[in-house]
Design brief:
The complex is a heterodimer of chains A (489) and B (208).
Chain A (H helix, E strand, L loop, with lengths): L23 H9 L2 H23 L4 H17 L1 H14 L3 E5 L2 H15 L3 E4 L3 H5 L2 H7 L3 E4 L2 H8 L16 H15 L11 H18 L2 E4 L3 E3 L4 E6 L3 H7 L3 E7 L3 E2 L5 H12 L7 E6 L9 E7 L3 H5 L15 H5 L1 H6 L10 H12 L16 H5 L6 H14 L4 H14 L2 H11 L11 E2 L7 H4 L4 E2 L6 H9 L3
Parallel strand pairs in A: 1-10, 2-3, 2-4, 4-7, 5-8, 7-10
Antiparallel strand pairs in A: 5-6, 6-9, 11-12
Chain B lengths: L1 H14 L23 H13 L3 E5 L4 H12 L3 E3 L14 E3 L7 H6 L2 E4 L3 E3 L4 E4 L16 E7 L3 E2 L2 H7 L6 E4 L4 E2 L7 E2 L6 E7 L2
The chains are: A alpha/beta (489), B alpha/beta (208).
């Protein structure tokens, strides 16, 4: 691996899931044509928005918790190197092993080698954004190791050979009937088959998942997890979950490997009192999630006796280097911003092309990969600001999006926009030309006279209407109306 | 590996300029210890647990044994694991009590009907019970694999808030925070109780 002094170290290409193979507008157009998807998403996001609002409203000091949450994360980022060293020291002192991974390839190699050393060819996994980000399952598969996802939604996604579309509820794009069909079709090939006569009742589907995974949990020797929090002061790791699959993976196997982004740190044990209030309420809209597991290194006689922690950079230090973008690293992956976003609600997660969809994905993915590799994502927003309002760590996503838009325009990909804005700027400095140009705009009425909207502009403006309808220009420009009613401008 | 560590630390150093440590404004409600074990706090705990679909019994100390007997009979629990340190005077005759000594395998635990434990602390505001693998609680697998978990919570173990609990817990112990039976909302965001963890959670709140 080369060291590019002075160059930001972005997440490398060709590995992991931070880049789509289409731009956002192209992918979104496909998603918008899928009526089933839109109705699944609309119903699900509406449900969770209501639940979140209710449990947040009952916390009298929510605003104070949010302020503290943001400040704690900022304090970690401002002192990240020293905090990581503290964590390393504590984990090691309690019998764990700490590994450092500059990028996805390195993390995948470390984990693969660790699994190989155990002699196992099957591992169970707790839902983890970091391992999806780096494409760990694919890397393990190449090495002949089967990684079984154990979160219900991840199981659905894995069995269907699909991609997750939501941070918290990866199968949010699937309804119950689709899920039943996937279970009946695929479970048998991966192990214990779905019971014959399975209906689409969520309770029955959950029961089928329990039966399917039970055998895997009881025999698993190696588990791989992510982490929601790591406390630098004590070396404690925390995983929050609902189903108990996390507890199974964190408790029963002999070896536990945890892959964690370097930004997941909290400085002190006390800081958990803030985040254990912010996260569940923002995320699932519950006062507390059913299960939270915390462990510090290895406990003799209880749980895995071998513990490895892999600290992952993969573009995070590059994000840290941008003072106007680094607050994205405060993110605790609650997904509240997805659920309130009018764009996400309509397109779903796949359109973003990255494992991090929605508003946070639109600011995080381009920073991890470099804006050049995700130039359309900062534009995947109406800048309405709902994401900022619900963010439990007060990430000002709209302002960050505008900042990243400027970067995208400055990078090569956005020549047309830059030329157009330059043209407008020049016109606006010449009032007579500007007035003439505006009157020209009325000609546009010809294009949309039948439908009342303009569907397609001629080239080069067709780039604009590829993803949008344009309202008809008015019959009279504002400047003409002003002159007619008020005299000269 | 050391090269990666050095490189990441160098990148961090290049990315941020050193500043004075940032102050954390802790204007939120911190640990206060207020209300611990009070009737109001026990009421709130009960309300939250019921909301999570746990079965709750409010009992006097003298009734614990009888209520456990009735609850287990009701659930058809005939063989249950009892961790070291669980008060023997609470164990009714009838069910077979299994010790975790020598340590039971996962398959043996899976064969049992249930588990009985005490707890370390409980949080009323969120209806959370915390186990720290101490006396009467056992190692983590015990309260996980059997499908039925009965936990005895003493009133003075119930604190009001999450900060109250965090302040009292020892991070070097393995901790399990339990808020209701296992559940999922992965299918159309409809909550279903009972996936991989114990599907039935029965809580005895011991008051008086």
């Amino acid at each position: 691996m080369t060291t590019d002094l002075g160059m930001p170290a972005f997440a490398p290409r060709g590995v992991g899931h931070l880049r789509g193979d289409q731009s956002f507008p192209e992918a979104a157009r496909e998603a918008l044509g899928n009526k089933q998807l839109r109705s699944n998403l609309g119903r699900a996001t509406a449900t969770i928005r209501t639940k979140r609002a209710a449990v947040v409203a009952e916390v009298p000091d929510w605003a104070d918790l949010r302020t503290a949450g943001a400040a704690i994360k900022d304090a970690v980022l401002a002192d990240l190197g020293a905090q990581l060293l503290r964590l390393e020291k504590q984990v090691t002192a309690h019998g764990g092993h700490v590994h450092w991974a500059r990028d996805a390839n390195e993390a995948n190699r470390i984990v693969t080698d660790l699994v190989r050393a155990t002699g196992q060819t099957d591992v169970v996994k707790v839902k983890s954004m970091a391992t999806q980000e780096i494409g760990l399952n694919e890397a393990l598969a190449e090495a002949g190791i089967a990684a079984w996802e154990t979160d219900l939604a991840e199981l659905i996604v894995q069995l269907a050979d699909d991609r997750p579309s939501h941070i918290l509820v990866p199968a949010i794009h699937r309804n119950r009937t689709e899920i039943r069909d996937i279970f009946l079709r695929e479970m048998g090939r991966a192990g214990v088959p779905a019971p014959a006569g399975l209906t689409d009742e969520p309770r029955e589907l959950a029961e089928a998942a329990r039966l399917h995974l039970r055998a895997k949990f009881l025999s698993a020797q190696v588990a791989i997890s992510g982490a929601n929090f790591a406390v630098a002061e004590t070396g404690t790791l925390a995983v929050v979950e609902s189903e108990g699959n996390g507890r199974m993976c964190l408790t029963l196997p002999k070896t536990l490997i945890t892959v964690m982004g370097i930004e997941k740190l909290l400085p002190t044990w006390r800081d958990l009192e803030v985040f254990l209030q912010l996260l569940p309420r923002s995320s699932t809209g519950e006062r507390m999630n059913p299960y939270t597991s915390m462990w510090t290194g290895v406990t003799p006689g209880d749980g895995p006796q071998e513990f490895h922690l892999v600290l992952l950079d993969n573009g995070r230090t590059a994000t840290l280097a941008d003072p106007d973008g680094r607050a994205a690293l405060r993110c605790i992956r609650c997904s509240a911003c997805l659920n309130v976003c009018p764009v996400y609600e309509r397109t779903g997660g796949h359109a973003y092309g990255s494992v991090y969809p929605g508003p946070i994905g639109a600011v995080l993915s381009p920073q991890l990969t470099g804006v050049k590799d995700n130039p359309s994502l900062p534009f995947a927003s109406s800048l309405c600001g709902a994401c900022y309002d619900v963010c439990p760590v007060a990430i000002d996503i709209p302002t960050m999006l505008v900042h990243l838009r400027a970067e995208a325009v400055a990078s090569k990909g956005m020549k047309a926009e830059r030329a157009a804005m330059g043209g407008v700027s020049s016109l606006m400095r010449h009032p007579r030309l500007y007035g003439a140009a505006l009157r020209m705009g009325r000609l546009g009425r010809i294009l949309g006279r039948r439908r009342g909207v303009i569907r397609r502009l001629p080239w080069p403006m067709s780039a604009w209407t590829r993803a949008r309808d344009l309202p008809l220009p008015p019959t009279e420009t504002f400047r003409d109306w002003w002159v007619r009613t008020h005299g000269s401008p | 590996m050391n090269a990666a560590r050095t490189e990441i630390l160098r990148r961090i150093d290049a990315a941020i300029s050193r500043s004075a440590p940032l102050e954390i404004p802790r204007t939120y409600r911190g640990p206060s210890g207020e209300g611990r074990g009070s009737a109001a706090v026990v009421d709130l705990m009960q309300d939250r647990l019921v909301d999570y679909k746990a079965v709750v019994h409010r009992v006097a100390p003298a009734q614990v044994r009888a209520v456990i007997a009735a609850a287990l009979a009701d659930a058809g629990v005939e063989r249950a694991v009892v961790p070291a340190g669980f008060p023997t005077e609470w164990l009714p005759s009838g069910p077979a009590w299994v010790q975790d000594d020598p340590a039971l395998t996962a398959a043996e635990l899976d064969d049992l009907d249930g588990v009985l434990t005490t707890c370390r602390i409980a949080v009323a505001e969120t209806g959370t019970i915390v186990l720290d693998a101490g006396q009467g609680q056992g190692r983590r697998a015990l309260s996980l694999v059997p499908d039925y978990h009965l936990v005895v919570v003493l009133a003075d173990q119930i604190v009001a808030s999450v900060p109250d609990a965090v302040a009292e817990l020892d991070p070097t112990r393995p901790l399990t925070w339990i808020s209701g039976p296992s559940a999922t909302s992965d299918i159309e965001l409809q909550r279903v109780e009972g996936v991989h963890g114990p599907r039935r959670l029965v809580v005895l709140l011991v008051t008086g």
